[in-house]
């Protein structure tokens, strides 16, 4: 079995909409999936909706990806600075879990 998402892969497959696939760097998409997996490993009860607000932050001479991850139930909100993202992305990304699968999409695609 592959190492990408073993936890979620056992629970449900995950997908990205065409808009996300074309606009969000793949390395950032994979990071967000791993982030959800890490949250679910620590907290078995998570919301069906994960919200990621993505922006850029200057650190030293370079720029890095900043991600604010939040959900409503149970309440969760934290901010991360991500190393190694090929190109910073600006915008909001949702991940919706419906019990059978999880989909990464933009709010306007809902």
Keywords:
single chain; 110 residues; alpha+beta; six-stranded mixed sheet; 38% strand; disordered N terminus
Q: What does this 3D model show about the protein?
A:
- The N and C termini lie far apart (32 Å).
- The longest helix is centred in the first third of the chain and has 17 residues, at 26-42.
- The protein is built from three helices and six strands.
- A hairpin with a 2-residue loop joins strand 2 (49-59) and strand 3.
- It has helices at residues 6-11, 18-23, 26-42; strands spanning 14-16, 49-59, 62-71, 76-82, 91-97, 102-105.
- Helix content is 26%, strand content 38%.
- The model is unreliable at 1-9 (pLDDT under 50).
- By secondary structure, the protein is an alpha+beta fold.
- A six-stranded mixed β-sheet has the order 1-6-5-2-3-4.
Quick overview of this protein structure:
By secondary structure, the chain is α+β, with helices and mostly antiparallel strands.
Helices and strands in order:
Blueprint: H1 6-11, E1 14-16, H2 18-23, H3 26-42, E2 49-59, E3 62-71, E4 76-82, E5 91-97, E6 102-105
